[in-house]
Amino acid sequence: MTYATDRLHEEIAYVAFHFHWGFEEILDLEHHDRRRYTEQIASLVTRGGAEG
Predict the structure, then answer these.
(1) 34 close to 11: Cβ distance less than 8 angstroms
(2) Neighbours of 27 (CB within 10 A)
(3) Which of left, alpha, beta for 9 (phi over 0: left; psi -120 to 50: alpha)?
(4) pLDDT tens readout for residues 4-26
(5) d(Cα 17, Cα 13) in Å, to the nearest integer?
(6) pTM for this entry
(7) How far apart are CA 15 and CA 38, in angstroms?
(8) Who's near 27: CB < 8 A, 6+ residues apart?
């Protein structure tokens, strides 16, 4: 099974926006590592919004 292209692009854009990493650098990540980063970013954003 392949990962949905739209979802992959969303993850890349999300990590790039928050970490300022390049496309190739993010695309080179293993799927589970990229998902972990998106989850961690979401947690930080949610926590930051609750504190701010």
Answers:
(1) yes
(2) 13
(3) alpha
(4) 999 999 999 999 999 999 999 99
(5) 6
(6) 0.79
(7) 6
(8) 12
Q: Give the H or E element holding residue 49.
A: helix 31-51
Residue 46, helix vs strand vs coil: helix
**Spatial distance between the Cα atoms of 8 and 5, rounded to a whole number of angstroms:** 5
| Contacts of residue 16, Cβ cutoff 8 Å, sequence gap at least 6 | 22, 23, 26
Q: How confident is the model at residue 52 (pLDDT cuts 50, 70, 90)?
A: low
What does 3-39 look like in DSSP terms, one character per residue?
PPHHHHHHHHHHHHHHH---HHHHHTS-HHHHHHHHH
